[in-house]
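Reopening this ticket.

The earlier resolution said the output was attached, but the attachment link was broken on my side. Pasting everything inline this time so it's all in one place.
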Amino acid sequence: MKVIETKYNGKLEVAEDRLIAFDQGIPAFEDEKEFVLLPFEEGTPYYTLQSTKTVDLAFIIVNPFSFFPEYRVKLPEATIVQLNITNENDVAIFSLLTVKEPFSETTVNLQAPIVINANKQMGKQLVLGDTAYDRKQPLFQKELVLAKEAK
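Inline output:
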């Protein structure tokens, strides 16, 4: 067990097998190499991706398919190798939220999903270069806003 201080839940004991290694960090947070996935609030679709090193670094994330069933992510071979993915059922995809006031104006980044190999506890933020998905998609808008034409 590892004791960590969290932004939203205070001090927690976390099993070692729940720690997720981000070997390259997350863009703009390259020194942050270890996170834990926590429910944000019981009974909601929101999670916290909490740094185990920095208390105030906690991203609010969601499963984008819960909000946008037509959303698609094709993992590049390099990501499959980097995260040691051998079974697609081991892959979890999440998207970062930008929480706004009022909450109904919150946006989700569909252009750079968080990809986690749940079996190996390895993750990365994948920047989709060849996509029409927006990085500021309104979360509660049913239709996807396409930022640009896909190449």
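Reporter confirms the inline version is readable. The helical segments are 64-67, 77-82. The chain has two helices and eleven strands.
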